[in-house]
Every structure is written in structure tokens, then in C-alpha cells.
């Protein structure tokens, strides 16, 4: 069964070339972080994946990243989406390069997959071949380690994680107990790249099986 891709939309972007000292303190920025770039995304996990990629392609760090409660369907405004991300860097050019990476990742590389035609039932089974500074810190692993980023609705996520952990030589390094801010659940798994891919594939298949037979146990 081919699943339909659900790509995130980047809803708003702004660059602050020379950030005010008050925000420097609030974001706990380093002295060399003089510029900020911020964006909102319609899908939070894709946005976090894109932030990590930005740290690999530009001289930037993630200053702030948060999901909004209840998800994009209950956003505070038309440009809010499901999360906000803020990059910090030494210059406007660097943070703009980070935003360029984010736009590219959300357009083609990272996406949810729909389990139904209405796209109301979806999962995220994405493998990061080499983590950047953001996801490696979030997962508590070394920069450059592979990561399986697995997210789904609550029951599906918990069952799928168990299947994924048994399917490959991987370790659960971060657990997202349901409900998350957006009412999902999941986790980060690490191991070799091939093991992460096998775990992600098993996670996807387990959730497909639930979607086809939700009350068969």
C-alpha cells in the first residue's frame, strides 16, 4: 500500500539581522550569535527535522523550538501552524542559509505519511542518516549518529515503538509519551543507519496493520 505524503508548509519567516540585547538574554544566546531567523511550520516534527538539517548546512544553532498545544487545527492564527523555530547565527547570511535548508527539507526530504484518503490518520517514520547539533542534543547522542524519528497517534505510537525496537538493533534514546502538545506520541531510536531504517519500516508497517484492523487483537 503506497502512502500519501503530507509535506509541511512554512507559513511565515522573518530575519532579525542584529538582535536586541533583551532577546539575547531571553534566548540565552552566545556573544557570537547576533542574528536570528524564525519560522513557523504547519507540522512540528518536520520542522524539528528541518532545524537539525540547518545546523549541518550553515553556521547556526537552534535557539528556540516549541510545538503549539493541540496542533495546527487549533492554531492561534493563520500563520502560526504547529510549531515555531528560531535559528541563531553570527550574521544574516548564515541564518538565511539555515532557512534555505529548512525550506528544502520541508519541500522534499521530510514528510508525514497519510493512512487514509482524508489525511486525518498519519505517521512520521523518518530516518536521519547523520544528526546535526540539534537532534543529537535532544536525543543525547553524538553529532553525526543516525536516528529514527518515529511519531504517530497515541496507541499506534506505543505499539509501533515496541515493534520497531524488536525489529532491529536499535536503542530508544528519547520517549514522547502521549499526549504530546499535538496529541501524538513516539520516540527517537538510534543504531546503525540500516538498523534505524529497519526500525522505521517496522514502525510504519505496524501502524498500517492497526489502521486496517483497529480492534483486532
TrEMBL record:
What Gene3D superfamilies has UniProt attached to this entry?
Answer: 3.30.70.1710
Keywords on record: Bacterial microcompartment
Write out the GO MF terms. structural molecule activity
Q: What range(s) does the BMC circularly permuted domain occupy?
A: 1-111, 113-217
Q: Which organism is it from?
A: Priestia aryabhattai (Bacillus aryabhattai)
The record's subcellular location field reads: Bacterial microcompartment
Spell out the GO cellular component terms annotated for this protein, sorted alphabetically and separated by semicolons: bacterial microcompartment
Please identify the protein, giving its name as recorded. Answer: Ethanolamine utilization protein EutL
Q: Which Pfam families match?
A: BMC (PF00936)
Amino acid at each position: 500500500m503506497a502512502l500519501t505524503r503530507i509535506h509541511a508548509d512554512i507559513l511565515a519567516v522573518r530575519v532579525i539581522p542584529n538582535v536586541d540585547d533583551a532577546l539575547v538574554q531571553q534566548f540565552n544566546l552566545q556573544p557570537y550569535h547576533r542574528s536570528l531567523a524564525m519560522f513557523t511550520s504547519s507540522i512540528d516534527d518536520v520542522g524539528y527535522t528541518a532545524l537539525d538539517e540547518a545546523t549541518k548546512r550553515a553556521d547556526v544553532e537552534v535557539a528556540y523550538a516549541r510545538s503549539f498545544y493541540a496542533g495546527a487545527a487549533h492554531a492561534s492564527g493563520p500563520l502560526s501552524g504547529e510549531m515555531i523555530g528560531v535559528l541563531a547565527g553570527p550574521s544574516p547570511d548564515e541564518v538565511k542559509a539555515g532557512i534555505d535548508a529548512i525550506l528544502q527539507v520541508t519541500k522534499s526530504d521530510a514528510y508525514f505519511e497519510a493512512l487514509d484518503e482524508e489525511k486525518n490518520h498519519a505517521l512520521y517514520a523518518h530516518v536521519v542518516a547523520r544528526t546535526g547539533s540539534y537532534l543529537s542534543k535532544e536525543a543525547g547522542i553524538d553529532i553525526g549518529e543516525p536516528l529514527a524519528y518515529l511519531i504517530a497517534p497515541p496507541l499506534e505510537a506505543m505499539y509501533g515503538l515496541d515493534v520497531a525496537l524488536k525489529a532491529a538493533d536499535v536503542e530508544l534514546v528519547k520517549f514522547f509519551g502521549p499526549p504530546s502538545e499535538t496529541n501524538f506520541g513516539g520516540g527517537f531510536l538510534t543504531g546503525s543507519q540500516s538498523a534505524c531504517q529497519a526500525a522505521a519500516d517496522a514502525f510504519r508497517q505496524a501502524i498500517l496493520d492497526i489502521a486496517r484492523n483497529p480492534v483486532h487483537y
